[in-house]
Write a structure and sequence with these properties.
90 residues; mainly alpha; 4 helices
Length: 90
């Protein structure tokens, strides 16, 4: 969605493991969590937000656009996990 260029993305994938290793070497215990919601569940949540007056404000244009990119986001997430799952910081 234009958050970064392809070069910036590749640089992130290259630098992230180095940064994490530096944190671990300095004595920091690095614990990584990833919260994931299935496409079906995300669709259900978005529909509920759109229909409920007290929740519809939670839907931004970016949220709505992201629904059409769920598969692309999932692939990027898998790529990020592949590049950042290192022995020092799994």
């Amino acid at each position: 969605m234009g958050f970064c260029t392809e070069d910036e993305y590749e640089e992130f994938l290259r630098l992230c493991p180095e940064f994490e290793c530096a944190l671990v070497r300095s004595g920091i215990v690095l614990i990584k969590y990833w919260f994931s919601v299935s496409n079906r569940e995300q669709d259900r949540r978005f529909h509920a937000r759109a229909l409920e007056r007290h929740k519809y404000w939670k839907l931004s244009p970016m949220d709505l656009e992201s629904r059409s990119r769920w598969a692309q986001y999932s692939k990027c997430k898998d790529d990020m996990f592949f590049h950042t799952d290192i022995p020092q910081a799994p």
